[in-house]
C-alpha cells in the first residue's frame, strides 16, 4: 500500500472515530460536520475530502457500535441444531440488539445514504476486518447486505435448501417477517409504544415464529 493510501485511511478513521465519540458523549442530534472536524483536529474542508455528507459519517460511526451484535449473533446461531433453528435464533439476536439500540440500527439499515450503500458496508469491513473474526460463513452474506429484505433471505434460502421450508414460501416468509420487525422497530424508534426491549423482542419473535413455523415442511 502506498504512503498516500495509508495516510488517507488513517484520516478516514480519525473522522469516523471522532463521530463515534460525539455519539457516545452527546448523542446523534449533536453531530455536525464542523464539530466532527474540530474533534478530529482538522477543518471542515479537509473532512469533505473524505465524506460528502454527514449521513455517511453517522453510518460509519454507527457501525463502530455494531460489533456487539455481530459477535453475539454468531453465538446465538451456534445453539441451533439446524438451519431453521439458526434462522430463528438470528432473528432473536437481531431483535434484541435493534430494540436496545434503535438509533444505531436506524443509521445502519434505514437512513438515506444516497447511492451505493452496499459499497459503504464493504468499505467499512475492509477498513475494520477484525470485525469479521469468528463470524460464521453462512452469516457473512447477510452482514454485507444493508437491504433488510435481501439480508434475511440468504438464511431463509438455507432453511429451504435443507428441506425445512418450501421453496415457494421463501418470498412470503422473508417479506412477512421483515414487515413484523419493521412495524415494531418503527414504534420503538419513534416512542409510539412503551415496550421494554425485552418485551418488544418477545412480541416480535412470537409473530415471526408463527409465520415461519406455519409455513415449514415438518416439525424438527
UniProtKB/TrEMBL annotation:
Domain of life: Bacteria
PROSITE patterns: HTH_TETR_2
DNA-binding residues (ranges): 32-51
Residues covered by the HTH tetR-type domain: 9-69
InterPro entries in UniProt: Homeodomain-like_sf, HTH_TetR
Keywords: DNA-binding
Protein name, per record: TetR/AcrR family transcriptional regulator
Organism: Bacillus xiapuensis
Upper lineage: Bacteria, Bacillati, Bacillota, Bacilli, Bacillales
Amino acid at each position: 500500500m502506498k504512503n498516500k493510501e495509508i495516510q488517507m485511511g488513517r484520516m478516514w478513521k480519525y473522522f469516523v472515530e471522532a463521530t463515534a465519540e460525539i455519539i457516545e458523549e452527546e448523542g446523534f442530534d449533536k453531530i455536525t460536520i464542523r464539530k466532527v472536524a474540530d474533534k478530529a483536529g482538522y477543518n471542515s474542508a479537509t473532512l469533505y475530502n473524505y465524506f460528502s455528507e454527514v449521513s455517511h459519517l453517522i453510518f460509519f460511526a454507527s457501525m463502530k457500535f455494531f460489533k456487539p451484535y455481530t459477535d453475539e449473533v454468531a453465538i446465538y446461531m451456534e445453539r441451533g441444531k439446524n438451519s431453521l433453528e439458526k434462522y430463528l435464533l438470528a432473528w432473536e439476536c437481531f431483535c434484541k440488539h435493534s430494540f436496545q439500540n434503535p438509533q444505531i440500527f436506524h443509521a445502519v439499515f434505514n437512513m438515506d445514504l444516497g447511492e451505493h450503500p452496499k459499497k459503504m458496508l464493504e468499505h467499512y469491513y475492509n477498513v475494520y476486518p477484525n470485525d469479521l473474526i469468528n463470524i460464521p460463513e453462512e452469516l457473512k452474506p447477510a452482514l454485507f447486505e444493508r437491504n433488510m429484505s435481501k439480508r434475511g433471505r440468504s438464511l431463509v434460502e438455507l432453511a429451504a435448501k435443507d428441506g425445512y421450508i418450501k421453496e415457494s414460501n421463501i418470498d412470503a416468509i422473508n417479506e412477512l417477517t421483515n414487515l413484523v420487525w419493521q412495524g415494531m422497530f418503527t414504534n420503538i424508534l419513534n416512542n409510539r409504544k412503551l415496550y421494554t426491549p425485552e418485551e418488544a423482542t418477545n412480541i416480535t419473535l412470537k409473530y415471526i415464529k408463527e409465520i415461519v413455523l406455519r409455513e415449514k415442511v415438518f416439525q424438527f
